[in-house]
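Reply to dn_fold:

You asked what the input looked like. This is it:
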Amino acid sequence: MGFRMGIVGLPNVGKSTLFNALTRTAAAQAANFPFCTIEPNVGEVAVPDPRLDRLAAIAGSRQVIPARITFVDIAGLVRGASKGEGLGNQFLANIREVDAIAHVLRCFDDGDITHVEGRIDPVADAETIETELMLADLESVERRRANLVRKLKGGDREAAEADRLLAAAQEALAQGRPARTVAVAADDRRAWKALQLLTAKPVLYVCNVEEGAAATGNAQSDRVAEMAAAQGAGHVVISARIEEELAQLPATEAAEFLAAMGLEEAGLDRLIRAAYALLGLQTYFTVGPKEARAWTIPKGTLAPQAAGAIHGDFERGFIRAETIAYHDYVACNGEAGAREAGKFRLEGRTYEVQDGDVLHFLFNA
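and this is what came back:
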């Protein structure tokens, strides 16, 4: 599975510039005025993972297929968006379709780029967006609960379950807390996710800093880090301008550019790694002479469900998984060496796939 991350924030904080850089395109117009993004731009990005290239080199794979992440550049929200201000609820609907939110916050001063509220305060900006999303959620929850009244009177069991979850969300929202603060039992997680509440989405705060602060951050990004820690959210420091320049360079020049800026890796790498951690995702690999491929799954996924990421038939007809840990595959120089060294394992239905596992699934068609 891949996942979708929505890029949100106030106008003129660098969302579209970051999107352009991350997706290596100029699909999103970057301009110094609010609402330059009207339709959500969507771009797929390969997830960088040096392990995949190493495995492919060992196996002599003819093709290398990385995992993918989809970024959705959603237009700038403003105060009052939940009531239709700016471009309003049109864009709130776009947020419902993503797995997580990358909330871009302006952590730089630039007199040539206007701020929609006339000041630079990333924490206040975050609170503005969060408030609008909570107000939109609260209105949605109240409307949905009202629509369930007739079914509840009739003793509808599914309606009662939905109303119970909606009531928990409503209580949190009415207290000024986002829906993601609600403790949800394991048995309820699927139904809870189906509610598609905006504030139930995991949040990754992206601190867009000036070029000179890309390696160390600045006072504004430090404030965001404190806020994220208090919320249990993720955060990452990026200079959208650096990423934009980096996107135009060949690989060799890009490495030199990063070194000159005091950076060990591109912001894309840091952002994706932070997103994986936020969503509890991990990677396993399938490797052979034809192709080496990375697959994204949630941590804790059992072998049959991991097989299902490739094809539903693999999960339904699962027999067992031939398994080699990544470090064993590399140390033994491939599958044959791993077999000889006793590092090749057969795992069954209860096996919990580990990050970096090299797997081959046996199944009944």
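Residues 297 and 312 are 14 Å apart (CA to CA).
Hope that clears it up.
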